[in-house]
């Protein structure tokens, strides 16, 4: 007999996680209000929280916020999916075969230190300001985290698991990869997908700041051009909110794919 | 329902590998050993004597530097589902449930889904874990994990089963329990078993024959037939006699391997 209902426990846990977040939001708003009280900036530079909230509501109610958010998310999702489809098989092969890794790794080492943002000018030159250019930039941003986590995941597999797979009938490379290597590396792959979603989300905003006619980055850049800091702040707030939401989602997936290991 | 178990014939298997400094290290001197179908053979020796190396070569995980081994008429060239293995660290697949692990080999053998499930349940019953079929691997204790691993290894009915210090990581009571359970299963299924341990009482409890290995480079020092009926009581005089005899043999080797270790440190 437990005195606490499991449902209450879950609600309590959720509260315990949401409370610090809510506190942080309150602190930010207070500091923001203080800055305004002390420095009295022009409203086009830094509007008070209430005005920004009003603009948030306006953009929310008109649906404009959703369109921009949806556009940015669609770009990130498509690029993230494309690179996952490339990086996961490539990472499995690189982690599994020393020889293959030795051939491919130099390319990774050369391209990895180049920030995805450095690709934006080339992306514009090559693809213009259409969708393809932005998806390309996010692809660059999402490829390496997924790839490197997949490689690390394969390398960390206990060799005894591979042996177990072999004596249980996975005697060819294909079945071994499919039945043992991939599931054994999956927890690490999910971590990579989470990190790459974050880097992709950061990159799309940057790409949209430079060249776009839609998306949250565009909302921010446009707000700056027409001297509407409230619009800028709404865009920034939305980026933060979505970041927190996706991080929570991926944390949940991480737990789901860690097979109950602590 | 039991698949035929087969004899194992080890013919001058040797293993030499390159050390980090590039010097060849002789791990195994030519080993000659004939094991009958359905026999339970335990290999004991000081650590580093090459008993695990030998088992790995027999399971097909490494090429021998010389000689060959055959299970029945088939030469061992690589790992195969016909030769099962139980590992000290269990090596269960944590992404599969308990029954999923037991079904793994059956699925690879192409057993249809329904039959697979029934057979797996049967083997889970054999190790007394039928009520844990749907559980996750990480919910189980070490002893339970090794029971799942035993069920998983027996389920596809290999001709021979290798066991690499399977109970080495368990506490004394779980160890005793699992030894008895393994004996019961072995008596039912009569698989050929090659079991590596460094516990002398464990060897006497389980073995038809005990192979004592020398310190590195490993070779067979002697083979003792344990002529005691099951279940064997570790407190009986005969058991004690075997123990004394085996410890005497092993102590000689221990002195050598400790001396070799000390030499390598200076």
- Tell me the number of helical segments of chain A per DSSP (H or I, 4 or more residues long): 10
In DSSP terms, counting alpha (H) and pi (I) runs of 4 or more, how many helices of chain B? 7
Silhouette of chain A: globular
How much strand content do the residues of chain A show? under 5%
Q: Secondary-structure map with pairings?
A:
The complex is a heterodimer of chains A (262) and B (266).
Chain A: H1 6-39, H2 49-62, H3 64-96, H4 98-111, H5 120-127, H6 131-155, H7 159-167, H8 173-210, H9 216-225, H10 229-256
Chain B: E1 8-18, E2 24-35, E3 40-44, H1 51-59, E4 66-71, E5 74-75, E6 83-86, H2 98-108, H3 113-126, H4 142-154, E7 160-164, H5 172-189, E8 192-197, H6 200-206, E9 209-213, E10 220-225, H7 237-265
Parallel strand pairs in B: 3-8, 3-9, 6-7, 7-8
Antiparallel strand pairs in B: 1-2, 1-4, 4-5, 9-10
Briefly, what is this?
The complex is a heterodimer of chains A (262) and B (266). By secondary structure, chain A is mainly alpha-helical. Chain A is 81% helix and 0% strand.
């Amino acid at each position: 007999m437990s005195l606490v209902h499991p449902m209450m426990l879950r609600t309590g846990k959720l509260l315990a996680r949401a409370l610090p977040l809510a506190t942080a939001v309150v602190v930010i708003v207070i500091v923001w209000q203080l800055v305004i009280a002390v420095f009295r900036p022009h409203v086009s530079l830094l509007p008070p929280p209430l005005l920004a909230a009003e603009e948030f509501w306006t953009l929310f109610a008109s649906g404009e916020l959703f369109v921009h958010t949806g556009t940015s998310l669609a770009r990130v999702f498509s690029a993230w999916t494309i690179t996952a489809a490339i990086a996961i098989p490539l990472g499995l092969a690189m982690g599994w075969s020393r020889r293959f890794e030795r051939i491919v790794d130099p390319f990774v080492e050369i391209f990895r230190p180049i920030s995805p943002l450095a690709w934006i000018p080339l992306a514009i030159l090559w693809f213009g300001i259409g969708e393809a250019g932005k998806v390309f930039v996010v692809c660059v941003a999402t490829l390496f985290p997924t790839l490197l986590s997949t490689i690390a995941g394969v390398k960390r597999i206990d060799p005894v698991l591979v042996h177990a797979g072999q004596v249980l009938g996975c005697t060819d490379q294909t079945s071994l990869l499919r039945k043992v290597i991939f599931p054994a590396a999956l927890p690490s792959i999910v971590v990579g997908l989470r990190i790459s979603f974050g880097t992709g989300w950061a990159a799309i905003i940057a790409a949209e700041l430079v060249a776009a006619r839609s998306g949250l980055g565009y909302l921010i850049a446009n707000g700056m051009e027409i001297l509407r800091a409230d619009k800028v702040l709404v865009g920034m707030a939305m980026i933060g909110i979505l970041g927190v939401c996706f991080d929570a989602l991926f944390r949940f997936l991480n737990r789901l794919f860690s097979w109950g290991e602590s | 329902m039991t698949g035929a178990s087969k004899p194992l014939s080890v013919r001058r298997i040797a293993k030499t590998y390159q050390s980090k400094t590039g010097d060849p290290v002789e791990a195994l001197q030519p080993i000659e050993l004939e094991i009958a179908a359905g026999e339970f053979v335990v290999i004991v020796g000081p650590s580093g004597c090459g008993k695990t190396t030998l088992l790995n070569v027999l399971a097909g995980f490494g090429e021998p530097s010389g000689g060959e081994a055959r299970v029945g008429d088939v030469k061992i060239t690589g790992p195969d589902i016909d030769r099962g293995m139980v590992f000290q660290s269990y090596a269960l697949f944590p992404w599969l449930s308990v029954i999923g692990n037991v079904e793994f080999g059956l699925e690879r053998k192409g057993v249809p889904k329904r039959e697979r499930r029934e057979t797996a349940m049967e083997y889970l019953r054999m190790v007394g874990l039928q009520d844990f079929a749907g559980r996750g691997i990480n919910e189980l204790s070490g002893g339970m994990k090794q029971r799942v691993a035993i069920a998983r290894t027996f389920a596809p009915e290999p001709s021979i089963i290798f066991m690499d210090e399977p109970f080495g990581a368990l506490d004394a009571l779980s160890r005793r329990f699992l030894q008895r359970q393994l004996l019961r299963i072995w008596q039912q299924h009569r698989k050929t078993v090659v079991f590596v341990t460094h516990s002398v009482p464990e060897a006497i409890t389980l073995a038809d024959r005990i192979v004592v290995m020398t310190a590195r480079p490993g070779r067979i020092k002697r083979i003792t037939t344990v002529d005691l009926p099951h279940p064997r009581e570790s407190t009986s005089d005969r058991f004690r006699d075997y123990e004394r005899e085996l410890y005497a043999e092993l102590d000689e080797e221990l002195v050598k391997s400790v001396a070799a270790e000390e030499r390598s440190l200076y």
